[in-house]
Each structure stands twice: as structure tokens, then as C-alpha cells.
Amino acid sequence: MPLYLPSDLTILTTEIFQAHGVPDKVARVVADSLVLGNLKGHDSHGVIRIIEYVDWIGKGWINPHAELKVLNDEGAILVLDGQRGFGQLMGREATELAIEKARALGACVLTLKNSAHLGRVGEFAEIAAAKGIAHLSLTNTHGGGVLVAPHGGIERRLSANPVVGGAPMKNREAVVMDMATSTIAEGKLKIARAKQESVSPGLFIDSKGMPGTDPEAYYADPPGALLPMAGHKGYALSVFAELFAGALSGGSCSRPDQARVGNGWFAIFVDPAWFSGQEAYDSESSRFYDWVKSSRVRSGFAEVLMPGEPEARALAERSCDGVPIDEVTWGKIAAIASSAKVKVPKTI
Ligand SMILES: NC(=O)c1ccc[n+]([C@@H]2O[C@H](COP(=O)([O-])OP(=O)(O)OC[C@H]3O[C@@H](n4cnc5c(N)ncnc54)[C@H](O)[C@@H]3O)[C@@H](O)[C@H]2O)c1
């Protein structure tokens, strides 16, 4: 697959957004997040999103000038409204406010409604963990972006609703869990479709409820639906993401009458120093980390990894080798760039 320099991708993404009226600082934040998504191995949440985001700016679903609005700031509570601003910026600003509160009060519980797509939500756990703050969050999609059938159902009723956790670790990479509660993030199906590849069985059903492998059956009319990960367990987690990030945030849960894709977010940030104490937390989390990784390895596996390690390794590898982008996706991005008179970089 063609490889691109991360720095070229950042410039390209920034310039495309600037050409679509996005203020310089915002364009750069979004570009950094998308390219980091590619670097961390999540191409579904990388520069491929330029295609949708440009479309959503045109439709008014993203307001590039929006500012994060604080609706309530009392004690450990933060109630925020993203006012349709880019999720990469709203999520980052909300995280920075929450880290300050967690340091001062021990914890912060926040809701964010009306953010545009938050993208790779684990990025916020990484930011907090880098500052020693632990984090758990649930994300839903207000209205639009309904992709997943309920356990036992055929029709789409839920979004991919990621669950995220970040645990800072002394002298090593943070443990970061960042996962859709669907079997697969929809963006990954989109990539398989772009590459005209089939996917493993068990990820989605077609419009009749039959297991599908050709992504076209998912995007057909009538459409298919993603399945919840791990059956009823992923479904239960996803329902809670809807209720906490959707209903509790004052935004909305998945619904049939809303086309705009935007995210709701329920997040908790805690400073370990206020709970077990920093020293006790560092020592017990390190002991546990080493013990888990010391397990004997099953046949078919090379080693035991902690959540977040695949992304850290992809970052190290892709920072050196470049970011692979399939030709169909690149063709679409290059067409957007050319019509905005932005220079398209060459492969490495
Ligand atoms: N904004 C949104 O609405 C939205 C919706 C859905 C997904 N997403 C994003 O999509 C991205 C991809 O999600 P996904 O569910 O496809 O992720 P994934 O299945 O690739 O990874 C899920 C988690 O499992 C861990 N993991 C993977 N392989 C592992 C292994 N061998 N050993 C130990 N841990 C391992 C990863 O570190 C990660 O924390 C995420 O960044 C998510 O935030 C966003």
C-alpha cells in the first residue's frame, strides 16, 4: 500500500480544512488528531475522516468557529456544550478543564453534548494519563450515526458507542482501552469496502438479519447492521453509553429522526493521589501489569499485550515507515485537495 510521511499528511489536512473556512488553530488540532489516529494504527479514525468532515462542514453539521460552552461548573461537576464544534477540539478542551479539576478536587465528572465527531476517543485518555490522571468514559452519537442492532434485533438502534479507559503507569506507557462496543468500528468496514475486501463473519448482519461478509450488504438499501461486541455484554455496555452520554448529557440518545452525526460524552477523571495515594497506586498498578504480562502464552499468540500496546507499537513503526493509505481513500482526499487548490503530497 502507498506510504505517506506523517508531516505531509498533517500539512495536507490542515490546508484542506483551512480552505474550507476552518480557523488555523482548529485546523491544526484536527489535523494532528487525525494523523495521530493513522499513526496509532486506527486508519478508520485518521485522514479518511477529511472526506466526511468537509461534507459535514458544508451541511452545517460542524461549526468550525464554535467554542466550548460551560453550562455548569460546580465542585467536581462540569456540564459542557460543544455547540457543534470539531470534536477533536471540544474533547481536548474538556479534557484540559477536567484534568485541572481532578488535580484540585480529586475527581471530575463531566458531560459534553453537541460535540461534532470526537474521533479516536482514546486520545483524551492518553492526554490525561500523560498528566498522571486516570480516566473512564462512555460516548454515544446523538441521533445520527445509528449503526448497531440491539442484541437479538435486526434493525439499527444504537451507535458504535466507544468505551474508553486510561490508567497512568509509573515509568512506562499508560494502559489505554479504547474500543467501540460494536464488533467493529464502522470506519473499518468503510475501509474494507474501499479496498473491495470482505470481512470475517460475525461482524454484521444484512437487512434480513443474516450474517454478512461483503461490506456492500451493510451499506445496501435497506441497510444491514453492525452487531454489538461480545453479544449481550457489548449490547449492555452500549445501552449505558446511550443513557449516560446521550440522556444524561442533555443531548440525545440514538433516534430515527436525526441525520446529523455528533457525539455525546460522559467522562470521569481521577487523580490517584487522592484515592489510594500516588505511591500505593504506582506500586500496585506496576505489580499487576508485570504479573498479567508474565502469563504463559497460548498457541497462536506471540505474547500478552496490555490494552494500548498495539497502538504504541503502531506509533513507533509508522513514525519511521510512514502511514499506509489505500488508493480509493487517497483518490477521494486528493480530489478534495485539488478542488480546494491544496497541493497533494507524493508517496514516500
Ligand atoms: N467517535 C465515535 O463515535 C467512535 C465510535 C466508534 C469507534 N470510535 C473509535 O474507533 C477506534 C477503533 O475502535 P476499535 O473498537 O476498532 O478498536 P480495536 O478493536 O482495534 O481495539 C480495542 C482495544 O483493544 C486493545 N487491543 C487490541 N488488540 C489487543 C491485543 N492483542 N492485546 C491487548 N489489547 C489489545 C487496544 O489497545 C484497544 O484499547 C477507537 O479509537 C474508538 O474511539 C469512535
Question: How does this structure look, described?
Answer:
- With 348 residues, the chain is α+β, with helices and mostly antiparallel strands.
- The chain has one domain (3-182, 228-279, 309-339): Ribosomal Protein S8, Chain: A, domain 1 (2-Layer Sandwich).
- It contains eleven helices and twelve strands.
- The chain has helices at residues 6-19, 24-39, 49-59, 87-105, 122-130, 186-194, 215-218, 232-247, 278-293, 309-321, 327-339, and strands at 3-4, 69-74, 77-81, 107-115, 134-141, 163-167, 175-179, 204-205, 211-212, 225-226, 263-270, 323-324.
- Strands 2-3-4-11-5-6-7 form a seven-stranded mixed sheet, with helices on both faces. The protein has a three-stranded antiparallel sheet with strand order 9-8-10. A two-stranded antiparallel sheet has the order 1-12.
- Strand 8 (204-205) and strand 9 form a beta hairpin.
- The longest helix is centred in the N-terminal third of the chain and has 19 residues, at 87-105.
- It is globular, with a radius of gyration of 20 Å.
- The mean pLDDT is 96.
- Residues 42, 44-45, 117-122, 139, 141, 160, 162, 176-180, 185, 188, 263, 305, 307-308, 310-311 line the site of nicotinamide-adenine-dinucleotide (NAD).
- Nicotinamide-adenine-dinucleotide binds at residues 42, 44-45, 117-122, 139, 141, 160, 162, 176-180, 185, 188, 263, 305, 307-308, 310-311.
